[in-house]
Design a protein that fits this description.
Elements: H1 16-29, E1 35-36, H2 48-59, H3 72-86, E2 96-99, H4 102-113, E3 119-124, H5 129-136, E4 140-145, H6 156-162, E5 167-173, H7 185-198, E6 201-205, E7 229-234, E8 247-250, H8 253-264, H9 272-284, H10 286-309, E9 323-324, H11 336-347, E10 349-350, E11 352-353, E12 365-368, H12 373-388
Helix pairs in contact: 2-9, 3-9, 4-5, 4-8, 6-7, 10-12
Cofactor: pyridoxal 5'-phosphate
Domain Aminotransferase class I/classII large: 34-382
Family: Belongs to the class-I pyridoxal-phosphate-dependent aminotransferase family.
Length: 390
């Protein structure tokens, strides 16, 4: 057979972040001393009460299939959380789909809503898997290039310029990975205006919602455009549960039902005992989340101050998430991919190249401060030495 893979995979690269993790593991196996600031997961242990809830569930025999849409108690907890925290009204019965990760919630949404020829507008820079997922669904990702000079602000003009008659979905992510930006009221209004004008479905990825700084409010599009918005969220980032693989999709019953078909014929359901743990997370673990955010706040200050001290590097303080996204265009190595490669080879500091997040990140790199203060200090010292010896 000459053809071994589907043609739609031709435009899909490997996940840049997963590939980088593989390379880090290979280099460490070879004895390289590395400081890894590419991590996309909290470095904290899952809060104890969540783990204990899962262990109790396992010991009591909760090891079988759950309903495909999710356990009723978790769907009720999710609906209550959305109403209390986000002013978003959804039906626990048919407006919530519990998924094995927020990533799968996104994949199920794209797969269930998109046909060949459809387009999805994705603000750029944006998370590395958005465009790939759209392509895997047989549709076309269209970047809306955000301007670094404005702090990557979303404007009506930028989004409108990317919309065509084939546009079906407008994607937003706040707090944003990789920029750390959060939607403000004017940006949200721009999103809502364009979505209403063209009758678009808005998919709002809110996975970093709990990690915010300086009192920045979290704005959910579904609170203002309920009938056309799907909200994606989960437990990985806020509750340090990346390995548990638990997320959810919430919104209008007909759109959630479509995504449920994808889930039923792919993964069936999320693991039952993780759903029980997720219910505990929503109901009992907010103090632990606040402790983690307090630690992130101190690390953010250390990293941003240190980056702005480096020659040729400028970095705005992120408003949310645990990423800094510095501009390295003044270093003499203005391409983020080349800069990241240089820092890995010469300084032993692992960071994610900005271009991995789309054309909007060309002159940037992403550094995670889900790392100890000692690791952050070590990384900054290594980068400073490399930059000043160039």
């Amino acid at each position: 057979m000459a053809k071994r893979a589907a043609r739609r995979l031709a435009s899909v690269e490997r996940s840049a972040t997963v590939a980088l993790l593989d390379r880090v593991q290979q280099l460490r196996a070879q004895g390289r001393s590395l400081v890894d600031l590419s991590r996309g997961e909290p470095d904290f242990v899952t809060p104890q009460e969540i783990t204990e809830a899962a262990v109790a569930a396992l010991r009591s025999g909760r090891t079988h299939y759950s309903p495909s849409r999710g356990l009723p108690e978790l769907r009720e907890a999710i609906a209550a959380k959305l109403l209390a925290d986000n002013d978003v009204v959804v039906s626990a019965a048919d407006g919530v789909l519990v998924t094995p990760s927020a990533k799968h919630a996104l994949y199920a949404a794209f797969t269930s809503l998109l046909d060949p020829g459809d387009e999805v507008v994705i603000p750029s820079p944006g998370w590395v898997s958005y465009a790939a997922m759209v392509s895997l669904a047989g549709a076309t990702p269209v970047p809306a290039l955000l301007d670094p000079a404005t702090g990557f602000r979303i404007t009506e003009a930028v989004i409108e310029a990317a919309v065509t008659p084939g546009t079906r979905i407008l994607l937003v992510n706040s707090p944003n990975n990789p920029t750390g930006r959060m939607l403000d009221a004017a940006e949200l209004e721009a999103v809502l205006t364009v979505a209403r004008r063209h009758d678009l479905v808005v998919i709002s990825d809110e996975i970093y919602e709990h990690i915010r700084y300086d009192g920045h409010p979290h704005l959910s599009p579904a609170a203002y455009l309920r009938e056309n918005t799907l909200t994606v969220n989960g437990f990985s980032k806020g509750y340090a549960m990346t390995g548990w693989r638990l997320g959810y999709l919430a919104g209008p019953a007909d759109l959630v039902a479509a995504a449920r078909k994808v889930q039923e014929h792919s993964v069936s359901c999320a693991a039952t005992f993780t759903q029980i743990a997720g219910t505990t997370a929503l109901e009992d673990s907010q103090p632990a989340v606040e402790e983690m955010v307090s630690a992130y706040t101190a690390r953010r200050a250390l990293l941003v101050e240190g980056l702005n001290f480096l020659p040729g590097v400028t970095c705005a303080a992120p408003e949310g998430s645990f990423y800094a996204f510095p501009d390295i265009s003044g270093t003499g190595v203005p391409d983020g991919s080349e800069f990241a490669e240089w820092m890995l080879d010469d300084a032993g500091v692992v960071m994610t190249p900005g271009p991995a997040f789309g054309a909007g990140g060309r002159t940037h790199v992403r550094l995670s401060f889900a790392a100890s203060e000692q690791e952050l200090t070590d990384a900054l010292e290594r980068m400073d030495k490399a930059l000043r010896s160039r």
